[in-house]
Specification:
Order of helices and strands: EHEEEEHEEHEEHEEEEEEEEEEEEEEEE
Radius of gyration: 22 Å
Shape: globular
Distance between the termini: 45 Å
Number of helices: 4
Number of domains: 2
Oligomer: single chain
Largest sheet: 7 strands, mixed
Helix content: under 10%
Length: 408
């Protein structure tokens, strides 16, 4: 089962699917793509579902963790969610784009798009905000969160029991665009991009993949199977543990959503909070005062600017190996044995560098691996840098932590 993925967009090699990152890293091969640890463009780093396995007649909340590492940031980013694709042919996401496809639930992806445009009176441009009169039954949302109603059991659970119990599957698509999202009506262009939406700049030109991210999240619906998201308690920098209450530089899961990271000196601002530890003077972030390194993590700069050869600083998320969410067992297989689910962590930075793309945390063969950290290498320039650790399991569970670190 594949739980998350990105859709290829012209201008960049295919992004590696979120759920396949571990397999590619351990195999040592795969498609060529931008260094996944470096956030130097618009990126979606993870999508979390409130319940990775859903029940019929329930509601699932999805949250998008994104970051804009472009030199043009901070800038407006148009984010939307599209639901309504239930049980496509072969359980394949691209079956959602079939003209006329509709499941027994009566929903379809293209129907969602048509209903959204009709409700907002648009000729093809998706809204940036939804008014109070937007019909509640349309599975469409704007922003960082999306509430998706799951249909009834009779309509939803249509896949017969086999290696897994009987189930249903619904796909949610997401897009983040440094511009304006609009409907693509040219069939040839839809076939070329693999998605019926395009991202247009203020000048009216289609933007490339560095400024437009599209992907999907699969939600499996069962009568009884459960799965929990991994639970993260903090972040370790150089042997010291930081928690959300320590200096405000650590956020976990929902606390990272809808809260923009602090901007750097020279960036536009409207309030002092926009500038983190700096000051907002006449609409511009001034240089930050020296942070209190007794409260927040501080490191020394490195002339090699985030490359191997800099002093290594061990970083990793804090997880309880015995916590219920971090020690779950998968359903018993044909041999009758229930195995521990896999957990792994992906690391990302907006400055400096890290030694590892992905590290294994736990699996059925070896159990818990406490050595799942990576080496952080400092950048050359002083100021804040951000590290993201996104923890995933092999059944669609996701959790994350973002840690701000100050370079003196």
């Amino acid at each position: 089962m594949r739980h998350h993925g990105f859709i290829r967009y012209p201008g960049r090699p295919a992004r590696v699917a979120l759920g396949a990152a571990l397999a590619l890293a351990t195999a040592g091969c795969g498609p060529s793509f931008d260094p996944p640890t470096e956030v130097t463009s618009l990126r979606v780093l993870g999508v979390q579902k409130s319940t990775p396995y859903a029940r019929p007649d329930s509601t699932v909340e999805l949250s998008m963790l994104w970051a804009d590492g472009s030199e043009a940031a901070p800038r407006p980013v148009h984010r939307v969610w599209l639901g309504g694709c239930d049980n496509p042919a072969g359980d394949l996401y691209y079956g959602c784009f079939a003209q006329g496809f509709a499941s027994p639930t009566g929903r379809s992806l293209l129907g969602t798009l048509a209903a959204t445009l009709a409700a907002t009176g648009s000729a093809g441009v998706l809204p940036r905000e939804l008014g109070a009169d937007f019909p509640p039954g349309i599975p469409f949302a704007v922003g960082d969160r999306f509430l998706l109603p799951i249909p009834s059991r009779d309509a939803m659970i249509t896949r017969p029991a086999g290696t897994v119990p009987a189930y249903g599957l619904t796909y949610v698509f997401f897009a983040a665009c440094a511009g304006t999202l609009e409907l693509i009506t040219d069939p040839d262009e839809v076939e070329a991009t693999g998605f019926p939406l395009g991202c247009v700049s203020d000048s009216g030109e289609r933007v490339g993949a560095d400024d437009f991210v599209i992907g999907y999240s699969a939600i499996y619906v069962f009568d009884e199977l459960d799965n929990l998201n991994p639970v993260i308690d903090g972040f370790v920098v150089g042997g010291r543990t930081y928690e959300p209450t320590d200096g405000g530089t650590t956020c976990i899961d929902g606390a990272c959503i809808g809260v923009e990271p602090p901007r750097g000196a020279g960036d536009d601002c409207t309030t002092p909070e926009d500038c983190g530890s700096g000051r907002c003077t006449e609409g511009i972030c001034a240089a930050a005062e020296e942070p209190d390194c007794e409260l927040v993590p501080c490191i020394e700069p490195c002339e090699r600017d985030g490359r191997s050869g800099c002093d290594s600083i061990l970083v990793h998320p804090v997880l309880d190996p015995n916590g219920p969410a971090n020690s779950e067992l998968e359903p018993a297989g044909s041999d009758g044995d229930a195995r521990r689910e896999q957990l792994w962590v992906n690391y990302h930075v907006d400055r400096g560098g890290v030694a590892d793309v992905v590290r294994l945390i736990a699996d059925s063969a070896h159990g818990w691996d406490a050595d799942h950290g990576t080496e952080l290498w400092a950048p050359e320039e002083p100021g804040p840098l951000r590290v993201w650790a996104v923890v995933r399991d092999n059944r669609g569970g996701v959790g994350w932590v973002r840690q701000t670190i100050y370079v003196r």
